[in-house]
Design a protein that fits this description.
Layout lengths: L6 H10 L5 H19 L8 E8 L7 E2 L4 E9 L5 E3 L12 E6 L7 E8 L19 E4 L5 E6 L2 E2 L9 E8 L6 E5 L8 E9 L17 H15 L3 H6 L1 H13 L25
Parallel strand pairs: 4-5
Antiparallel strand pairs: 1-12, 2-11, 3-12, 5-11, 6-10, 7-8, 7-10, 8-9
């Protein structure tokens, strides 16, 4: 992450896209946040990396809920040092001698939902609705706003609300639909009791005020992706959007190069997941 406030590129994008009206400026900021989340989803950027310990029992056949702001998992290991490998749940083989995790059905309906929520940008206060203690630690969806907020108390969220303006009497959801559920199996394809540390990455806070920091190691890819969305999605001028495609591909490659993924030597395994032996065993 570089300490660059988003206000420093708002004006650049406005010039790039020849934006002058307030409506178009607001649309551009929305396109920027959508582009920001597009880029965030491509890899586990350092500033977005998190870890969580989840305790499973042998009866957790449906898995455990993950934080709603999770994008993906890039590593998992338990207290005994067993590494868990990602697999598709339709391909869990009994003779695969590996510990594995997989994504089960996501949440189809929110834990709680309703309407009447009021929130103000820059504040952590929740008003207009009544939450219960069971909501604490879950994530809150606010109307049509981008992003989720961790609930700290029944009247507050963990971080200040970010939006272009106040929201008044809007719908809300606690543990919204689409929240992931993750399950584990051992090297015999059985559910077991284990505490697993998952290393994952999350969607960053949205960028609305000039002082909000961009949580990426560079800004050019975000500028170009925003301009592409503005011209193509908002204005419908595909020629202008397509004109930036090659430059964007170069910029996103350069951005990824600033945070190369560490390569950890893997243990060689055969087709059944067993440790492969090479040469003569003595």
């Amino acid at each position: 992450m570089i300490p660059v406030p988003v206000g420093s590129i708002f004006s650049t994008i406005e010039k790039m896209c020849k934006i002058s009206s307030d409506d178009d400026k607001l649309a551009m900021r929305l396109m920027l946040n959508l582009a920001y989340y597009d880029i965030a989803s491509t890899r586990p950027w350092r500033s977005m990396q998190r870890d969580i310990d989840i305790a499973f029992s042998a009866s957790d056949t449906d898995g455990k809920h993950f934080p709603s702001n999770m994008i993906g998992i890039y590593a998992a290991v338990d207290g005994d040092g067993n590494q868990y490998y990602p697999v598709d749940r339709a391909n869990i083989l009994e003779d695969d001698a590996r510990y594995r995790f997989y994504f089960n059905d996501p949440v189809e309906s929110a834990l709680f939902e309703g309407t009447g929520l009021y929130m103000t940008p820059g504040l952590k206060t929740i008003t207009g609705i009544t939450l219960t203690a069971s909501s604490i630690g879950e994530y809150l969806q606010v109307g049509s706003e981008i992003g989720f907020y961790k609930i700290k108390t029944i009247t507050t969220i963990d971080t200040p609300f970010r939006a272009n303006a106040k929201v008044e009497n809007v719908p809300y959801a606690v543990r919204p639909e689409g929240t992931s559920q993750v399950a584990i199996v051992n090297n015999e394809a059985e559910f077991e009791a284990a505490t697993v540390t998952f290393y994952y990455w999350v969607y960053p806070p949205t960028l609305w005020s000039d002082h909000h920091l961009i949580q990426l190691p560079g800004t050019r890819a975000l500028e170009l992706k925003t301009a592409m969305r503005y011209w193509g999605t908002y204005k419908g001028i595909l020629d202008e959007s397509d004109r930036l495609e090659a430059e964007y591909k170069s910029a996103i490659k350069e951005l990824s190069g600033k945070e190369p993924m560490p390569i950890t030597p893997g243990i060689a395994r055969d087709a059944l997941g067993r440790i492969a032996m090479f040469g003569r065993r003595r």
